[in-house]
Amino acid sequence: MVSAGILEEDGLGHNVQNTKFNIYACACALVASIISIIFGYDTGVMSGAMIFIKEELKISETQVEILAGIINLWALIGSLLAGRTSDYIGRRYTIVVAAIIFLLGSVLMGYSPNYAVLFVGRCTAGVGVGFALMIAPVYSAEISSPSSRGFLTSLPHLCISIGILIGYVANYFFGKLALKLGWRLMLGVAAIPSLALAFGVLKMPESPRWLVLQGRLGEAKKILVKVSNSKEEAETRFQEIKIAAGIDENCQDEVVKLPENKNRGEGVWKELIVRPTPTVRRMLLAVVGIHFFQHATGIEAVILYGPRIFKKAGVTRKDKLLLATVGVGVTKTIFILVGTFLVDRAGRRRLLQISVGGMILALSLLGFCLTMVHLKGELLWALCLSIVSTYTFVAFFDTGLGPIAWVYSSEIFPLKLRAQGASIGVAVNRITNAAVSMSFISIYHAITIGGAFFMFAGIAVVAWLFFFFFLPETKGKSLEEMEKLFSKNTNPTATTHSQS
After folding, report:
1. Residue 447 or 267, more confident
2. In the predicted model, what is the mean pLDDT of residues 125-153?
3. Which residues, 6+ apart, have CB-to-CB distance to 6 below 8 Å?
4. Across 118-127, 424-433, 475-484, least confident range
5. How would residue 2 be classed by pLDDT, with cut points 50, 70 and 90?
6. pLDDT digits (tens, 9 = 90+) for 162-177
7. What span, in angstroms and rounded, lies between the C-alpha atoms of 488 and 222?
8. Contacts with 65 (C-beta within 8 Å, 6 or more apart), sequence order
9. Which residues contact 380 (CB under 8 A, 6 or more apart)?
10. What is the mean pLDDT of residues 194-207?
11. What number is the average pLDDT over the span 6-31?
């Protein structure tokens, strides 16, 4: 297969010209990704809100860490529930559930008369985070063509970055309001887009792959025609999905009856965890690894504790701290756009290797600069380089590792295992996120803030080696081809075959 979107084999040995980009599929993926904007906003706005929450509620550093990280532990629960939920009620209605849970969490956080209510609101929002992080990439992957799947499946991460930037900007402006009002508005306004999304998503089509698993072949075929680049491609995808679902490819029925264990996600955990095949085991290792390293390399320390990092580097005024953090959001949004457009051109493996290599250098430089400030006091050159290296780290992260973790984990599992397999990846992602966000203050108190970033640089080196040896290239492959790609004899370093 020539896989840059120019020629594709139709499964019958014929080459089909495919140069179009399906606007309808893109619009559906964008709507699904709005849930990620809401989550990103919550993450970004919390970095500034914590400054004001600590001041008004008089909470300890430990309580700040718990407040920052608890959302991720509840997201773990949400992600595990979301996989089974999406297999049962469908991808589309699962997005509605996520939006409603976010709405409840935002209302509670915006109301918060005390720490206890704020804590409950964060936990509630966390369940919504777990649903959102699992379902948006899976839905986007299942409606997209192989030639544009990387782009469309990157959109949720792009929207997270946009949400973080909006959160940082909200911090800057709401931070000028009265103490009791400012941080509550920061956290509460997320209820508005949550409510809008809950209604808007009902206009979207259901995932055709989920419909096939329900035996609703007629509906699935109609949607595939809308989201594919040609009728030939729609027919090819339809045949491949039927085969993957265990349905005769020549079946012409509009509706077929499938066993309950096929269409409701029964027995999936046994196939994923208890008795996986070598191929599924390798897929699971890849997903767990990429999600672990996405956060173990320190991105959450920068996103959530950016104001503290810049304060340690020498920025002292509160408004300048928040403004410098807005720069992180701008950098993140710009470079996630770069990564989104490159992922289907350069390929997953190449972008990961470049991305993590740049992160290693940026983290090392940031650790060095912060260590010099710690040892010698305020240094203008160290302050400037700290800001530059922070922005550089974010730029490299969002060009590769940031979006590709979501693309990769949503595309490699077989149809029956996809939703719940992706939910395991999200669970690992949230556990690692929680570990970093709830321990970063304690870590830098123990080994200095410079030492903390040297530690992240070391983890990034291990990540680069893991990606090189364990992740094959998936660019241009259909979702139904992934099992062959991850078969026992596949050599990951040899899968970057000629692409044009």
Report:
1. 447
2. 85
3. 17, 18, 19, 500
4. 475-484
5. very low
6. 888 888 888 878 877 7
7. 36
8. 437, 438, 439, 440, 441, 442
9. 314
10. 83
11. 62
Please, which residues bridge with residue 16 across strands? Answer: 8
Q: What is the dihedral of CA 428, 285, 292, 143, to 10 degrees?
A: -70
Q: For domain 7-212+265-494, give the CATH number.
A: 1.20.1250.20
Q: In whole angstroms, give the CA distance from residue 450 to residue 363.
A: 9
Buried/exposed code over 6-25 (b: 16+ C-beta within 10 A; e: otherwise): eebebbeeeebebeeebeeb
Residue 17, beta-bridge partner list: 7
In sequence order, what DSSP letters do the residues of 180-226 get, joined into one string? HHHHHHHHHTTHHHHHHHHHHGGGSPPPHHHHHHTT-HHHHHHHHHH
SS3 of 172, please?
A: helix
Q: What is the pLDDT of residue 455?
A: 96
- Check if the beta carbon of residue 449 is closer than 8 Å to that of residue 242: no
Q: What is the pLDDT of residues 213-235, one digit of tens each?
A: 888 899 999 999 998 888 888 88
Extract the tokens encoding 61: 């550093």
CB neighbours of 252 closer than 8 A, spacing ≥ 6? none
Residue 264 is classified by DSSP as S
pLDDT score at 262: 53
Question: What is the arithmetic mean of pLDDT over 443-469?
Answer: 94
DSSP designation for 177: S
In single-letter form, the type of residue at position 227 comes to V
Q: Which two tokens stand for residue 367?
A: 């650790």
For residue 8, what pLDDT band results from cuts at 50, 70 and 90? Answer: very low
Higher pLDDT, 74 or 269: 74
Q: Which two tokens stand for residue 248?
A: 């005769």
Continuous H helices in 58-90: 61-89
Q: Give Cα 123 to chain centroid, integer Å.
A: 19
Calpha distance 69→325 (Å, rounded): 19
Give this prediction's pTM. Answer: 0.73
Residues 6+ apart with CB under 8 A from 76: 130, 426, 427, 430, 431, 434
Q: How many helices (H) and strands (E) would you count in the chain? A: 21, 2
Q: What's the maximum distance between 2 C-alpha atoms anywhere in the chain?
A: 76
pLDDT, the chain, mean:
83
Contacts of 52 (CB under 8 A, 6+ apart): 175, 179, 182, 183
- Where are the chain's structural domains? 7-212+265-494, 213-263
Q: CA-CA distance, 299 to 280, in Å (whole number)? A: 29
Q: Do residues 59 and 112 touch, judged by C-beta distance below 8 A? A: no
Please, which residues bridge with residue 8 across strands?
16
